[in-house]
Amino acid sequence: MLYFENDYSEGAHGKVLEALVKTNYEKLSGYGSDEYCERAKEKIKAACECEDADVYLLVGGTQTNQVVIDTTLKPYEGVVAATTGHISTHEAGAIEYTGHKVLTVPEHNGKMDADELKDFLETFFNDGNHEHMVFPGMVYISHPTEYGTLYTKNELANISQVCKQFEIPLFLDGARLGYGVMAKDTDVDLPTVAKYCDIFYIGGTKVGALCGEAVVFTNNNMPKHFTTMVKQHGSLLAKGRLLGVQFDALFTDNLYCEIAKNAIDMAELLKKGLANKGYRFYLDSPTNQQFIILENSQMEKISKDVRFSFWEKYDDSHTVIRFATSWATTKEDVEALINLL
Amino acid sequence: MLYFENDYSEGAHGKVLEALVKTNYEKLSGYGSDEYCERAKEKIKAACECEDADVYLLVGGTQTNQVVIDTTLKPYEGVVAATTGHISTHEAGAIEYTGHKVLTVPEHNGKMDADELKDFLETFFNDGNHEHMVFPGMVYISHPTEYGTLYTKNELANISQVCKQFEIPLFLDGARLGYGVMAKDTDVDLPTVAKYCDIFYIGGTKVGALCGEAVVFTNNNMPKHFTTMVKQHGSLLAKGRLLGVQFDALFTDNLYCEIAKNAIDMAELLKKGLANKGYRFYLDSPTNQQFIILENSQMEKISKDVRFSFWEKYDDSHTVIRFATSWATTKEDVEALINLL
Amino acid sequence: MLYFENDYSEGAHGKVLEALVKTNYEKLSGYGSDEYCERAKEKIKAACECEDADVYLLVGGTQTNQVVIDTTLKPYEGVVAATTGHISTHEAGAIEYTGHKVLTVPEHNGKMDADELKDFLETFFNDGNHEHMVFPGMVYISHPTEYGTLYTKNELANISQVCKQFEIPLFLDGARLGYGVMAKDTDVDLPTVAKYCDIFYIGGTKVGALCGEAVVFTNNNMPKHFTTMVKQHGSLLAKGRLLGVQFDALFTDNLYCEIAKNAIDMAELLKKGLANKGYRFYLDSPTNQQFIILENSQMEKISKDVRFSFWEKYDDSHTVIRFATSWATTKEDVEALINLL
Amino acid sequence: MLYFENDYSEGAHGKVLEALVKTNYEKLSGYGSDEYCERAKEKIKAACECEDADVYLLVGGTQTNQVVIDTTLKPYEGVVAATTGHISTHEAGAIEYTGHKVLTVPEHNGKMDADELKDFLETFFNDGNHEHMVFPGMVYISHPTEYGTLYTKNELANISQVCKQFEIPLFLDGARLGYGVMAKDTDVDLPTVAKYCDIFYIGGTKVGALCGEAVVFTNNNMPKHFTTMVKQHGSLLAKGRLLGVQFDALFTDNLYCEIAKNAIDMAELLKKGLANKGYRFYLDSPTNQQFIILENSQMEKISKDVRFSFWEKYDDSHTVIRFATSWATTKEDVEALINLL
Question: The whole model's pTM is what?
Fold first, then answer.
C-alpha cells in the first residue's frame, strides 16, 4: 500500500526525535518556561527577522486557530475567512464554540481577493444597521491554502493594506507554512509573512514534528495574560518541553525549511508524472498537495493500492482527490505511485 | 412626517393595553406561573389546533431564536438557514454566541428550497470527513421571510418532509406570523404551521403587543428544564404576567389575526398605489413589507417627509428601500404616502 | 389569601401605567433610541448627580447582571461576590453560562466585608500560581442584599477603596435599590451609590415597573458597542419605549423614591407587629424583606392564609421564611397579616 | 540543584520513548484511528477489567477535565467538586469557560465526604426554588487528591452509591492515578476505580509519558459524536499515534504501575527521613506528594539548593510547601534532599 493520504502519516523527523531523546532526562520547568522553549522562540524570531515578535508554542492547528482568534477578537467581533478556509469548514465549529462567527468572502482557488475583502468591509461599515450585525474583527488566510495554492508577496501586501485601512489584524494559518515558503517561484519567505501579518503560525505537526505549532505575534501584540487564557481553553501543556525541544531542533541549521523542500521536490516529481500520463488537475498547486479529477471507477480501482484523500464530488461520474507529499515522502514512493496510475 | 420604517413604531393594540390596565393590581405569581399565562397557552393551542403543544412565552425575537436554537441543538450541531435568514445576518451573532454555527443554503426571494436543503444534507452525511464538520441539527425558516415572502403549504410540506427524512427538527421564526397567515391567497394558516413545524413562534412584538413571542413546541418537545435554561440565558421575566395578559388578549376573539389583517389591507392599498405610479418593486411581497427600487436622489428627497428602511444598495445609482405597514397603519397614512411619492 | 411572597406580585404603579397608556400611539423609533429613553436617562443622571454617566435600560435583573458582567470582564477574569450573592446562587448559572467564574468571599448578613475582600485579592495576586487561576476582575455587591440588609456609606467607601487599589470595577446590583435608599437611618442615597460604584443599576421590576432595570455606568465607562453586545445576548428590546416611558415616569417628581417609601413604611409596621407578638427575626433587616424563624407546624398552618417565601431550613423543626412588602402593599394587608400570626 | 518541584520535570520513561522511536516511520492513519491507539485501548480495558469500557486518549489534564465535563453535563447542569478540587481552583476557569458552574462541597484533606455530598444533593432537590439554580449533574473527585490523599474502597463505594441514588455520574480525575493505585495499604486498584466510577482517566503526563491522559467511560457511556466534540474543543490531535504508542507501551507488561511504584518508594523514603529529622507534616499523604510546614526563613534558605512548590501560607511565619517524587526520582536525589534539610 502506498500512502499519499496526508502529510502527517509518520512521526517526527529524525533530528527532532533525536533531540527529544537527547534531552529526555533533563529536569526542566513546566508550562513552556524551560530553556528549550526560550531557545526555540529566539531562533524563530531570527528566522522571521522579527525582533519585536512574541512567540508562543501550542499543540495543534485547530487549537491554535481557536485560541488565537478567540483571544484576539473582541466579544462582538467575528473573523473573516474565505468560504474554503479551514476554520469555515473543517474544524467542527471550533470558532463558533468560542462565541464568534466566521464571516465569509468568496474564494479563488482557495484564496481571498483583497478587493473583494475591501468591498466586504466597506459594505459592512456603510450599512446603517451594522450595530445589529457581527463586526469583522480579524482577517484569516491560510498559506498554503486548503487547495495548496499560495499568495504572492503582492497579494499579501494588498490584503495587509486593506486590514490596516480598517484597523483589523491579519492572521495567517501556516499549518503547512514550510511547504509554502519552499515552493518554487514563490516570493514569500518567513520574513515576508512576518512583515505583512499581525499574527501567524508555523506549523510543526505537518512539517516534521510529532505535534506543535509556533504562533508568532509580530509586533509585541500577544494578548495580555495569554498563558492564563491558553489554560482556560484547555490548551496548556504541562511538559512544554515537548514543544520547545522540537521547535528548537526544527529551527537549528534551517532544518524546518530543508525538510519542507523534500515535500516540494516530491510533489514536483509527482506533478510531472501525472501530467505525462495525461491526468487532469483540478487546479495548479505549487505545494505538497496535488488535486486531480478522476473518473469514479478508476478512483475505486487505485484505492486498493494507494491511500489518498477524497476531496469533493466533481460531477456525477468524477471525483476530486488529493495526493499529499511530505518531509518523509521518498522518491521510490512517488515513482511507485506514478507507475501505478 | 410619515412613518413606514417598521412595524413596531407604536405601543400595544388598544385591547391589549386595556387588558394590562384591567389586570394591573391583581396579585399574581411570578415567572410565568400565573393564570393569564395558562389561559394564553390554552388559547394558542386551540388556535393552532394542536393539543399536544407546549407553549412558552418569551420577550423578544432574537432572544427567542437564541434560546430555542441553543436549547434544542446538541453541542456539536449547527442550524441551517437561508443566507438571508435573520439569524444569519441581523442578530449580532446571537446564535454563534451560544456556540453554534449558522450553516447556510441559498435563498430565493428570502426562501429556502426543499431540494437544495436535501442536497445540502445529503452532501454533508455522505462526506467521509463529516465528523470534522458541524452537524446540521435544525432547520430554520422565517415566515413571512425577511423579504415579506411566504412559503406555500406545499413548500412547507416538502421542507418538513426533508427534515423528517434526516431526523432534524424544523423551526419557524414567526416574528411576523400574523401578517403571514392573513395574507391574501395564502394556504398556510396557524394549524398548517403547527402541523409541519416541530417548533415555531407567534410574534407579538410586531403584531400588537408591547413585547412578547409565544413559542409553540408542537409535539410535547419542549426541552426538559426549559425554565432553568431560559433563566440561564438571562431571559426569564419575573413578571411573566406582562406576557400572559397580552397573549391572552391577543388570542381572545381572534384579535391577533384581525389586527394583522389591517396591515395586509394597508399593504395592498400601498402596492396598488405604487404600481399605479410606476414604481419598480424589488420583488413581489404578499405581506406587510414592501420593497421598491428607488433612484438615489429621489430616495434622498422623500426621506424628508417619510421614514422608511434602507434595505440594500441595488446599483451605483439605485437603492432598495422598505415600507412596512402594521396593525396600526391607517388609510390616511397610506394615502398620504402615495400622494407624496 | 394574603400575599407577602415577593415584591413583584402586581403590575406597574398607576402613574407608570398611565404614562404607557398616554404615549401608546406615539410613533417612536426602536431599540431604545426614542425620546423617552433619552429623557429617562437624563433624569436618572440628575437623580444620581452624576453627569458623566452612561445610562442603559435593560429588561430584567438576571439579564442585567449577565450582560454587564460579561461585557465588562476580560475573558480570563471572574467576578467576586458574597457566597449569598444573587449571581452566586439563584441565577441558574447565568454568569458561568457566559464563561466567567463567580469567585466567592464570606457573607455577613448578606454583606461582603472590605477587609476580607482585600485579603482575598492580596492572596490571589501574591500566589505564585495565579496565572493558573481565574483573575478577579470585578466586585459584585447587592444593595439591599438578598437578606434585606444595607451597606453603610462608610462600608461602601471601604469596598470602593479596595477596588480602586486593585483597579477592579465595583458593580452594585440594585434590583431593590429604591427600598435601600428609602430605608430609615441609611446614609446611602443615589448620589452616594453613584459616587462609590463604577457600575450599578436601579431596579424597576421590583419597584413599580412592569419590567426594566436602568444600568448606570458612572464614569463614561459603558463598554464600546454595548448595544451590539446587548443584542448578541438576546437582550435588546425592539420597543425600547416600553423601558423609556416607564423610567421617565419613575424619575419624574421623585416617584421612584416615593413609592419605595411605602414598602419601607409597611415593613416597619410589620416588624413592629411581629416583634410585639414575640416572633424571632433571623436578622435585622431595615428594608422591605423581613426574615423570621418559624416552627414548622406553625409555618404549615399560616400557609393556608398567606403566601410567603420559604427561605432556608433553620434546624430540623424550624424554617426561615420571608415576608416582602412592596410599593403596592397596603396597611390593611399588613394589619391582616399581623392579626393572622 | 535538587528538583522536587513536581512530577513532570523529565520527559518520558525510557520504554515509552523507545516505543516512539521504534514506530516513528510507520505510516499510520490520523486522529487516533491507528492500530496503536486500538491496542492501547484494549490493554487499558484489560487492566481495568472493564470490557464494556470506551477508552479515548487526550493530551492533557485540564483539557480532559474540560472536554469530559462539558460533553457529559446537560446545559443547565454544573459539576460538584470539593473546594480544593483542581477544577475548582487551578484550571483558570476552564470549566466555567464551557458554560458550567463548579459547585462545591467541603474538603477533608482534599477529599469529599459521601454524607456531605448526599446532604448537598438533598438540599438542592428539596429546595422549592431549585429551578432557578444550577443543577448538580456530575460529581468530580480526584484520586490521589490535590493533597496526595486517597479514598478507600469503602469511601468510593459510598460516594458512588450517593451518585447512583441521584442518577448523577461519578467522574474521577486520575492525573496521578498510578501513584494512587501503587500506594502502600490502599485497597483501590484500577478495577475498583472502574467499578465505582462512570468515567475516570489514567494520567500519563505525570506518570511516564510526554503527554496524554486515557479517559475510560466504564459502561459504553462515551457521548455520541465524541470525536467531533473533541475537535470542536480544539483538542483533537492529528497524530493520535503520539498518544497511542505511549499508552500502548505504558500498558505493556504492567509498566504503568511498576514505574509508579518508584515514586511511592521514594516518597516513603523521604517521609521517613523528614520524620526522623522532626519535620512537621501538613497532613499524612500516602502518595508521591508530601506537604510540610516550614518556618519562612528556613524555606528561603533551602530554596537555594532545592526546587519545591509553594503551596499555601500557613501563618505569618510559616508556609506549607510540597515535595513531589515521580517515576524518575532516584534514591540519590532523596538522600541528598534529606541531607540538605
Answer: 0.98
